[in-house]
Amino acid sequence: MVTDTMTSKLTDQFYSTSNIKFEVDLRPLIKTWIMLGECAAKCEQIAAMPILPETAAKIETEYLARAIGAVLTFEGVNLESGEIRRIIEHKAPVSDPGENVRNDSIDLMAGFKAVADYVREDPPAAITPERIRNLHKEIMKNRLPETGNFRTGRIKSSSDYEYPSGEDVSPLLECLCQWLDEIRSRVGENDNKLVYGILAGIIAHINTLLIFPFTTGTPAIARFLEFEIFLRSGLSFSAALLPGIRYTAAKSEYFKQFDIAIRTGDIRGFISYAVKGLLDGLNEQLRLLRGQYSFIAWTSHIDRQFTGKENSKSWRRRKWLILDLSSRQEPATLNEIRYITPRIARAYRQMHPRTVSRDLDLLADIGLVAREKNTFYAKRESLITSLQP
């Protein structure tokens, strides 16, 4: 993996008017390169894992809701991801967030899916200022009266950083886009496309914020541009959403690294921060997927234990009992188990109170249930086979 200085071949005609530098020396960031390698490996691991369709849909919806919430949070709207999930699934929210928030959530969902569709259609390899302009049109079309127009005047940040003049926006974006293409084309024979794609996405995010091409909507467009570059580089839909989610989870550090970048032009701290956030998010996704495999293996084990007993009403009831007990994370008391799900409550409604206890004893005899004081739990550890001599 090459860890040299990443410098644009373009001239430095804009360096005197802003802190934007189309170069970054990543050689000192050994830990960041290691994390980048881990990110690439975990992305490949996730991509190779077969996922049940219902699990994939659930994960995608969950992370999409969290990504939408992250964009809204930076716009001053705080809404739980569960509420956003209900909105994008066209279910009534528990508390009405207001028509504007509902519409913004739907528009942002459509924006993420539109970008994914665009990448799926094999677009031109190069990122261009025109593509960034079109992103603004797509994402903000229902949120602003005018979209796709680069700003013309000067603006200042809250820390008195003066962004480049309006007349410099287009040339600066040209420089940025060419630099991004140069980074993404650095993949050598032994280098990983994902590593440089991740770097390009993060660099696109921070530099779009430094250039601030749109009077309104620039932070959102920075996230969508990063998301698009990640998808182009081979990250999955849910993995490409992760940085935006992590930026919100560690918002104070986000603003700290952004402030360093606008004051000094040094974006290395932001890159390290973003890579760590992506790695944390990928580890979380892997835990979710491994949990799925554990559950599939456990339910398959249950099926094997009940082979040949499918026609017995009592054994069918016991199978429901262990399956529904398996969905609970904590041990349950006998009384809790009687009402653990509606079907279990119905199955034991006309039974003697001791029937549940006898069924649990039978399930324990075949290694599916364990007892802990006055509680019971699914004995998943019975699947673990020691390989020690």
Task: Lay out the secondary structure.
Elements: E1 5-7, E2 23-25, H1 30-48, H2 53-74, H3 81-88, H4 99-120, H5 129-140, H6 166-184, H7 193-211, H8 218-232, H9 237-240, H10 242-249, H11 251-264, H12 268-305, H13 313-326, E3 332-333, H14 334-338, H15 342-348, H16 354-365, E4 369-372, E5 375-378
Antiparallel strand pairs: 1-2, 3-5, 4-5
Helix pairs in contact: 1-7, 1-12, 2-3, 2-4, 2-10, 4-5, 4-8, 5-8, 6-7, 7-8, 7-12, 10-11, 10-12, 11-12
Could you provide a short overview of the structure?
This protein has 389 residues and is mainly alpha-helical.
Question: What does this 3D model show about the protein?
Answer:
There is one protein chain. By secondary structure, the chain is mainly alpha-helical. It folds into 2 domains: 286 residues, Orthogonal Bundle (Fic-like fold); 78 residues, Orthogonal Bundle (Arc Repressor Mutant, subunit A). The chain has 16 helices and 5 strands. The strands form 2 sheets. A 3-stranded antiparallel sheet has the order 3-5-4. Strands 1-2 form a two-stranded antiparallel sheet. A hairpin with a 2-residue loop joins strand 4 and strand 5. Helix 1 runs parallel beside helix 12. The longest helix is centred in the C-terminal third of the chain and has 38 residues. It is elongated, with a radius of gyration of 26 Å.
- In spatial order, strands of the major sheet run 3-5-4
Give the count of helical stretches. Answer: 16
Q: Estimate percent helicity.
A: 55-70%
Summarize model confidence as the mean pLDDT.
Answer: 86
Distance between the termini: 40 Å
Query: What share of residues are in beta strands?
Result: under 5%
CATH class of the largest domain: Mainly Alpha
Instruction: Find the CATH topology of the largest domain.
Output: Fic-like fold
Bulk shape: elongated
